Amino acid sequence: MIIRSLLDTDLYKFTMMQAVLHQHPAAQVAYRFRCRTPGVDLSPFIDEIRAEIDALCTLRFADDELAYLRGLRYIKTDFVDFLRLFQLDARYVRLEAVPGASGGIGLEIEGPWLHTIPFEVPLLAIVNEVWFRHQPPADEAEGLRHLQAKIERLQALPDCTVSDFGTRRRYSHDWHAKILPILRDGLGARFAGTSNVEFARRYDMTPHGTMAHEFLQAFQALGPRLVDSQKAALEAWVHEYRGDLGVALSDVVGLAAFLRDFDLYFCKLFDGVRHDSGDPFEWAERVIAHFEQHRIDPRQRTLVFSDSLDAELVLRLHERFGARSKLAFGIGTNLTNDLGPKPINVVIKMVECNGQPVAKISDSPGKGMGGDPGYMAYLRQVFGLPPEPVSDAD
């Protein structure tokens, strides 16, 4: 099995799932897979992927896993009690070969949000590992050399931290497990931990994560008005965590719209903001200026960078902003899938909630995603964004 524990996922799946249990347990959603890398055909491996999904859906939480979750200060007892009964259901997943589709397959998840939210990360990890099983073998020695070179570069960081955010696009489960202790031992206090809950538990690391795009996307259908959907999602998060997990995601409908909604109230309530698309230098300048405009010292807030990072970009960002704000870096594919074979860029995004379309509009061309081009155009209009040709409605 590729996935051997339901903890083998990103922390924010659990934090969002808890909020869904408490606030929107009846919400119905749909997700869609997309491969952004041209020329990838996953259809020959569809039976292998399906078998891994079936195996995933046999897993249950073990008592020691539940005890670990219960020990996290922001995880509540009733949520752990719910997880004791939880099991993923393969009936919520549709997988088929689709000639001409991105990646050559159609992969959709549809059902209750509470019961489908954990699928995304393990499904992407499965797709990646199955794909790389059928590529020319990787050179682990080369991968370790690459990793050591990154560690040596990152050792120059004096006062900020790097975390592993690489579960969904890793080369394999076993490679991921192998490199994390090397990162911890090589970087020392500069290595803050991992987004992967299984490995955080195994290696006594700190698990990291707050919210993903889907949480704010869902409120496009759950909130009172579309134009207020980001504010409604942030309010719901504050209500659930009361000051914990205080990093807000900034690019669900673009940074400009986010900053309009992220007023003095939210500037005071949240500890920081996460970057996931667009030019990171421009983003940081605008976020710092926004805090200063609201009389918030940006040195008391954290800028979290998590988009396509490598060691060199981390160092450049630290040089520019290290004295102006607290910084944290989440490095994904460049840590967990750098063994020679070219990584593939695969995503699963929410496209519908309670029968209504929802979408992500990115600050990077090609990273937006929605199932309804008309809705994408309407979303841009409501949030005052310029029109953009739709190229991701497949």
Automatic annotation (TrEMBL):
Q: What Pfam families does the record point to?
A: NAPRTase, NAPRTase_N
Which Enzyme Commission numbers does its entry carry?
A: 6.3.4.21
Domain of life (superkingdom): Bacteria
PTM comment for this protein? Answer: Transiently phosphorylated on a His residue during the reaction cycle. Phosphorylation strongly increases the affinity for substrates and increases the rate of nicotinate D-ribonucleotide production. Dephosphorylation regenerates the low-affinity form of the enzyme, leading to product release.
Q: Does the keyword Glycosyltransferase apply?
A: yes
Under the heading CDD domains, the entry gives:
PncB_like
Instruction: Name the reaction it catalyses.
Output: 5-phospho-alpha-D-ribose 1-diphosphate + nicotinate + ATP + H2O = nicotinate beta-D-ribonucleotide + ADP + phosphate + diphosphate
Modification Phosphohistidine occurs at: H213
Q: Which GO molecular function annotations are given, in alphabetical order? A: glycosyltransferase activity
Keyword list (alphabetical) reads: Glycosyltransferase, Ligase, Phosphoprotein, Pyridine nucleotide biosynthesis, Transferase
User: What pathway does the annotation place this protein in?
Assistant: Cofactor biosynthesis; NAD(+) biosynthesis; nicotinate D-ribonucleotide from nicotinate: step 1/1
| Job of this protein | Catalyzes the synthesis of beta-nicotinate D-ribonucleotide from nicotinate and 5-phospho-D-ribose 1-phosphate at the expense of ATP.
The family line of this record is: Belongs to the NAPRTase family.
**Name the record gives this protein:** Nicotinate phosphoribosyltransferase
**What species is given as this protein's source?**
Cognatilysobacter xinjiangensis
Give the source lineage, highest ranks first. Answer: Bacteria, Pseudomonadati, Pseudomonadota, Gammaproteobacteria, Lysobacterales
Tell me the gene name: pncB
